[in-house]
C-alpha cells in the first residue's frame, strides 16, 4: 500500500510539474522496430508543417522517409537536430520552397531524394553542408536551370538524377558539375535539352550519362567530350541525325542506346569509332536481313567479339539461318525482344554463334515451340545457359523442343498461353536448374514431364489450371528445393503424387481447391520442408475434437500459412492441430472465421516467433487466459481487428520476448496496464482504431503510454478519445484520477457529513437574516424603499406594535388606552389599522419597523407560534444586533418558561441582551398598582434612550405565576440589566 501511495505520489508530481512526456512515441512518424531508433517513416500525413512533423525525432536518426505528404516548404534548419542522418527521402510531397539553410547540419547525409515534387528553384548554397552526399535525386520536378555553384560542396556526389524536369541549358549543368571528382552516373532523361554543347568538359569520373527523351537535334560537342563515357543513352531523341556523331569519340562506349532515334545505324557505324562491347540498336529500324547483314559486317570489321547485342523493337519478323553469321562472335546475350518473331526455328539463326550464353525473345509473336529432335546439333550451343520466351503467345510446346540445347540452366516460358506441354517437351534438359512455367494454361502434368530434369531446383507452375497431381509427377526431382503450385485448381494429390521430392524445402499450394490437409503426402519431405503455404484453399473443420495433426512430422517447418480459407474459413481449429511443429517460426491464421480460440490452441508451438491472427475470427473474440502461455519465443503478435472486448493480464502472461504487438482495430474501451507491463521486451505497440475512453479507467494506460521509455506507441498523439475525436487520448485530463482513493473517499464523505450537519444550523441561524437581507435588497432599489427611508427619517410612529390576533383584546383594551390616551400621546402603528391595503405584508412589516422608533412585541404563547410576529421580532432584533439601534421592547403577556422559549434561539438571545417587561396579570396580589408601574416603565422606555435601568423596587414580589414550578430563571449575566426579574 505504501508503494502504491508512493507511486501515486510520484505520478502526481510528474503530472503536476509540466506536461512532461518521456515516452517513446512520436507525433507523426513511425520508428522501424528493428532499427534501434535510427529509421523513421513519416508517410501519408495531412500535416503541411515540416517542422511539426519531425520536431520530436531523436538525434539518433540515420534514415528518414517523409513521403506522400502535403508538405510544400522546408524551412531553414529543419533537420539541424538530426546530425547523424545518412538517408533522407522527401519524394512524392508537394515541395515548392526549400529555404537556403534547410539542410544545414546534415554533414553525414549520403543520400537525398527530392523526386516527385514541384521544385522549380534551388538556392545556390542549399547543399553547402552535404559534403558526404553520394546520391541525389531531383527527378520529376520543374527545374528550368541549375544555379551556379550548387554542387560546390558535394564533392562525393556519385549519382545525380535530374530526369523529368524542364532543363534546357546543358552547358549550365556541366559547369556546375565540372569540379566533381566522383560523379559516375548522370541522368538527364525527359528534359528539354537540344544539344550537348558545353564550355567545360564532363567530370572525368563520369561513366554513364542518360539523355533519353530530350530534344537533341545535334550533339554539338568536342571530339573528346564523351571520350570517357561507357554507357550512353540517347534513346527517343527522334530528331537526332546520324551525322551528329561525326567526329565524336565513342571509343570507350560499351553500351550505347540508340533506341527509337532517327540514327541510321549503318551510316553511324561508318562514321563512328564505336567498338562496342555491348550495343543497343533497338528501335533503329533494322527490320530486314539486308540491314542486319550490313550491320553485322560493319561490326565485324571493327570487333571480333561482341558481348551483348540488343536488337529489340526493330520489327524483325524472321531471321534467316545465315544472317547472324556475318556478325562478330557474341559472347554474352543476344536480345531480340519486342520484335515480331513468329518462329524460333530451333534457333537455327544462332547456329554459328557457338559462344552465345543467353538468348532473349520476350515480347514477340511466338505461338508454338516446335520439336527440335531432328536437329541433332549436340555441339551447337555449348555455352547457351539461359533462354527466355516470356510474354509471347506460345500455346503449345512440342516434344523435344529444347533437345538441342542440353546445357541450359534457366528456361523461362512463363507468361504465355501454353495449354499443351508435350510430356517429352523438356526431354534432354538434364542441366536445367530453374524452370518457369507460371502464368500459362496448363491443365495436366504427366509422370514423365520432368523425367530428365534431375538437376531442377526451382519449378514454378503458379497460375495454371492444374487440377490433379498424378502419381509420380515429380518422382525424378530429387534436387528440387522450391515447388510453386499456387493459383491452380488442385483438389487432390494422388497418393504418391509428391513422391521423389527428397529435397523440397518451399512448397506453395496457396489459392488451390484443397479441402483437407493430407498428411500422408508430406512424408517424403518431412525433414526438409521449411515453408508450407496453404493460404486461400477450401480447408474447413466442422468440429473441434482432437485429430491426428496433419503436420505431425514436419519437424523442420518454419513458415505455415493457413490464412483466408475460402469461402467460409477454417471455422474451427481441432484440438492439438499444430502438434509436432517444433520448429515453426511463423504462423498465419488471418481471415478464417474462427468461432473460438481454445486456451490450448497454440500450446505445441514453443518455437513460434511470429503469429498473426488479424481478422481471424467471427465477431467478438475472447482471448482466453493462457492462450499464448507456451509462446515464450514470440516476438511479433498481431491480434488486429479480432473484436477483442477486453483481456486479462494472464492472456499475455508468458510473452517475455514479445517486441511488437498490434492491438489495433479492436473494440475494447480500456486496456489493463498490468497486462502490458508484463511484456518486458515490448518495443512497438499499435493501439490505433480502438475506442479508448478518456476516463479514469484509462488514466494509468495514458500515463504508461506517455512515460514508457521503451515502448513506441504508434502515432500515440493522434489516438482520439472515443467520445469525441477532437480530444486526444494522450492528454485528456487525468489529474483528478490520481488522488488516493482512500483520501478521496474520506474527503468527500467528510464534506457530505459537514454539509448535512451545517444545513439545519444555517437554516436556523441565517434563515431570517437571509430572508431579511433579501427583502431589504429587493426594496433597496425600489421606489418603495425610498419612501420607506423618508418615512424613517420622519419616524412617523413612536412604536410599532407587533402582536398576535389572539392578544388583540389586551392591545385594544389595555395598550392603546394607556399609550395613546390617558394623558400620553404616543402614535402607535397597528397592523389592522395602519398597514397599507394591497401591499405585500412583508413590505408592510419592514416599512412599519423602519418608520417606528420602537417595536413593541407583545409576547405570548400565541405570538411565538405566529410566523409574522417572528419576522417582526427578527427584524427588530436585527436592528438591535447589526445596526446597533435598540428598537425592541418585549412585553411578556404571560409567563413563558425557558423550555418553551428554547426553540426561539434568537428570541432567547434578545432576552439575554435586552430588558423585557412582564405584564402583571390578574393573578398578582396587587394588580392595579403593579400595572400602573408597568405602564410608567413602558412609556419611559419608549421616550428615553434605549436602555432601561434595573430598578430593584420594581420587583413584583407578588407576581408569582400559577405554574411556578415550571418557571425557571432566565439565564443572566453581569452585563444584562433587568427591569423585572423573577424570583424563585
Ligand atoms: C542502440 O543504440 C545505442 C546508442 O544509440 C547503443 O548504445 C545500443 O547498443 C544499440 N543497441 C543495439 C541493439 O544495437
Ligand atoms: C510549424 O510548426 C512549428 C512547431 O510546431 C511552429 O513553431 C511553426 O510556427 C509552424 N509553422 C507554421 C507555418 O505553421
Automatic annotation (TrEMBL):
Query: By its UniProt entry, which InterPro entries does this protein fall under?
Result: Leu-rich_rpt, Leu-rich_rpt_typical-subtyp, LRR_dom_sf, TIR_dom, Toll_tir_struct_dom_sf
Is-annotated flag, keyword Disulfide bond?
no
Q: What is its main location?
A: membrane
Q: Which SMART domains match?
A: LRR_SD22, LRR_TYP, TIR
For membrane topology, the record states: Single-pass type I membrane protein
The entry's family comment says:
Belongs to the Toll-like receptor family.
Write the protein's name.
Toll-like receptor 21
Q: Which organism is it from?
A: Scophthalmus maximus
Amino acid at each position: 500500500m505504501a508503494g502504491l501511495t508512493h507511486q501515486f505520489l510520484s505520478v502526481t508530481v510528474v503530472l503536476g510539474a509540466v506536461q512532461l512526456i518521456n515516452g517513446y512515441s512520436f507525433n507523426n512518424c513511425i520508428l522501424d522496430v528493428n532499427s534501434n531508433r535510427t529509421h523513421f517513416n513519416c508517410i501519408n500525413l495531412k500535416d503541411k508543417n515540416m517542422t511539426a512533423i519531425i520536431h520530436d525525432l531523436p538525434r539518433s536518426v540515420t534514415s528518414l522517409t517523409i513521403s506522400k505528404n502535403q508538405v510544400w516548404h522546408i524551412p531553414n534548419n529543419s533537420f539541424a537536430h538530426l546530425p547523424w542522418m545518412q538517408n533522407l527521402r522527401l519524394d512524392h510531397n508537394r515541395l515548392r520552397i526549400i529555404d537556403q539553410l534547410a539542410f544545414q547540419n546534415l554533414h553525414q547525409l549520403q543520400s537525398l531524394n527530392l523526386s516527385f515534387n514541384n521544385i522549380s528553384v534551388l538556392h545556390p548554397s542549399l547543399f553547402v553542408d552535404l559534403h558526404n552526399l553520394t546520391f541525389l535525386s531531383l527527378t520529376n520536378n520543374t527545374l528550368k536551370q541549375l544555379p551556379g555553384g550548387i554542387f560546390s560542396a558535394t564533392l562525393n556526389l556519385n549519382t545525380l538524377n535530374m530526369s523529368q524536369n524542364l532543363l534546357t541549358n546543358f552547358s549550365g549543368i556541366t559547369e556546375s558539375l565540372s569540379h566533381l571528382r566522383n560523379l559516375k552516373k548522370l541522368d538527364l532523361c525527359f528534359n528539354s535539352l537540344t544539344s550537348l554543347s558545353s564550355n567545360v568538359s564532363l567530370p572525368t569520373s563520369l561513366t554513364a550519362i542518360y539523355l533519353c527523351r530530350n530534344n537533341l537535334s545535334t550533339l554539338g560537342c568536342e571530339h573528346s567530350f564523351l571520350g570517357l563515357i561507357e554507357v550512353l543513352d540517347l534513346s527517343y531523341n527522334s530528331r537526332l541525325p546520324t551525322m551528329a556523331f561525326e567526329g565524336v569519340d565513342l571509343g570507350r562506349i560499351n553500351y550505347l542506346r540508340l533506341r527509337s532515334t532517327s540514327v541510321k545505324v549503318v551510316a553511324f557505324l561508318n562514321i563512328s569509332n564505336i567498338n562496342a562491347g555491348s550495343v543497343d540498336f533497338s528501335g533503329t529500324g533494322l527490320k530486314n536481313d539486308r540491314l542486319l547483314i550490313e550491320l553485322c559486317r560493319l561490326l565485324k570489321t571493327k570487333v571480333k567479339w561482341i558481348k551483348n547485342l540488343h536488337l529489340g523493337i526493330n520489327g524483325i519478323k524472321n531471321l534467316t539461318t545465315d544472317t547472324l553469321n556475318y556478325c562478330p562472335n557474341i559472347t554474352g546475350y543476344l536480345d531480340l525482344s519486342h520484335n515480331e518473331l513468329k518462329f524460333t526455328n530451333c534457333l537455327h539463326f544462332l547456329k554459328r554463334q557457338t559462344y552465345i550464353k543467353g538468348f532473349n525473345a520476350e515480347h514477340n509473336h511466338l505461338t508454338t515451340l516446335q520439336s527440335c529432335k531432328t536437329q541433332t546439333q549436340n555441339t551447337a550451343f555449348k555455352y547457351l545457359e539461359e533462354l527466355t520466351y516470356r510474354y509471347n503467345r506460345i500455346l503449345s510446346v512440342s516434344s523435344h523442343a529444347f533437345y538441342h540445347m542440353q546445357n541450359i540452366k534457366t528456361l523461362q516460358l512463363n507468361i504465355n498461353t501454353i495449354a499443351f506441354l508435350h510430356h517429352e517437351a523438356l526431354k534432354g534438359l538434364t542441366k536445367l536448374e530453374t524452370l518457369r512455367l507460371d502464368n500459362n494454361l496448363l491443365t495436366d502434368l504427366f509422370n514423365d514431364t520432368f523425367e530428365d530434369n534431375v538437376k531442377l531446383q526451382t519449378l514454378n507452375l503458379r497460375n495454371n489450371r492444374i487440377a490433379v497431381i498424378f502419381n509420380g509427377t515429380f518422382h525424378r526431382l530429387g534436387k528440387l528445393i522450391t515447388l510453386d503450385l499456387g493459383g491452380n485448381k488442385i483438389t487432390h494429390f494422388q497418393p504418391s503424387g509428391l513422391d521423389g521430392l527428397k529435397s523440397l524445402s518451399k512448397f506453395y499450394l496457396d489459392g488451390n481447391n484443397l479441402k483437407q490437409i493430407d498428411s500422408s503426402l508430406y512424408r517424403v519431405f518431412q525433414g526438409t520442408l521449411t515453408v508450407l503455404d496453404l493460404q486461400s484453399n477450401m480447408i474447413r473443420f466442422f468440429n473441434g475434437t482432437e485429430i491426428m495433426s496433419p503436420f505431425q512430422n514436419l519437424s523442420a517447418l518454419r513458415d505455415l500459412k493457413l490464412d483466408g480459407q475460402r469461402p467460409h474459413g477454417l471455422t474451427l481449429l481441432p484440438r492439438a492441430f499444430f502438434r509436432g511443429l517444433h520448429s515453426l517460426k511463423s504462423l498465419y491464421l488471418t481471415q478464417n472465421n474462427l468461432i473460438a480460440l481454445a486456451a490450448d490452441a497454440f500450446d505445441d508451438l514453443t518455437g513460434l516467433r511470429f503469429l498473426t491472427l488479424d481478422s481471424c475470427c467471427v465477431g467478438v473474440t475472447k482471448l482466453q487466459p493462457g492462450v499464448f502461455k507456451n509462446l515464450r519465443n514470440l516476438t511479433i503478435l498481431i491480434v488486429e481487428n479480432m473484436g477483442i472486448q477486453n483481456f486479462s493480464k494472464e492472456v499475455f502472461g508468458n510473452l517475455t520476448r514479445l517486441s511488437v504487438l498490434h492491438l489495433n482495430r479492436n473494440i475494447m474501451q480500456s486496456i489493463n496496464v498490468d497486462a502490458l507491463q508484463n511484456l518486458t521486451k515490448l518495443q512497438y505497440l499499435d493501439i490505433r482504431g480502438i475506442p479508448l475512453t478518456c476516463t479514469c479507467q484509462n488514466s494509468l494506460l495514458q500515463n504508461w503510454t506517455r512515460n514508457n521509455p521503451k515502448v513506441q506507441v504508434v502515432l500515440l498523439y493522434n489516438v482520439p478519445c472515443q467520445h469525441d475525436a477532437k480530444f486526444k487520448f494522450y492528454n485528456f485530463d487525468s489529474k483528478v484520477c490520481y488522488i488516493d482513493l482512500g483520501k478521496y473517499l474520506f474527503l468527500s464523505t467528510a464534506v457530505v457529513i459537514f454539509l448535512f450537519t451545517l444545513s439545519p444550523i444555517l437554516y436556523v441561524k441565517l434563515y431570517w437574516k437571509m430572508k431579511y437581507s433579501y427583502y431589504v435588497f429587493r426594496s433597496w432599489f425600489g421606489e418603495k424603499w425610498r419612501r420607506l427611508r423618508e418615512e424613517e427619517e420622519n419616524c412617523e410612529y413612536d412604536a410599532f406594535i407587533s402582536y398576535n390576533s389572539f392578544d388583540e383584546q389586551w392591545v385594544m383594551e389595555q395598550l392603546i388606552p394607556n399609550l395613546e390616551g390617558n394623558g400620553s400621546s404616543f402614535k402607535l402603528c397597528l397592523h389592522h389599522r395602519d398597514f397599507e391595503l394591497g401591499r405585500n405584508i412583508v413590505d408592510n412589516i419592514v416599512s412599519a419597523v423602519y418608520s417606528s422608533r420602537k417595536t413593541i412585541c407583545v409576547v405570548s404563547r400565541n405570538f411565538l407560534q405566529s410566523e409574522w410576529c417572528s419576522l417582526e421580532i427578527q427584524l427588530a432584533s436585527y436592528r438591535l444586533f447589526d445596526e446597533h439601534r435598540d428598537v425592541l421592547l418585549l412585553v411578556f403577556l404571560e409567563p413563558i418558561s425557558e423550555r418553551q422559549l428554547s426553540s426561539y434561539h434568537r428570541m432567547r438571545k434578545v432576552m439575554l441582551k435586552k430588558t423585557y417587561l412582564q405584564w402583571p396579570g390578574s393573578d398578582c396580589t396587587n394588580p392595579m398598582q403593579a400595572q400602573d408601574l408597568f405602564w410608567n416603565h413602558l412609556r419611559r422606555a419608549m421616550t428615553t434612550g434605549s436602555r432601561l435601568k434595573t430598578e430593584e423596587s420594581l420587583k413584583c414580589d407578588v407576581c408569582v405565576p400559577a405554574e411556578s414550578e415550571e418557571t425557571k430563571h432566565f439565564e443572566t449575566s453581569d452585563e444584562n440589566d433587568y427591569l423585572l426579574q423573577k424570583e424563585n
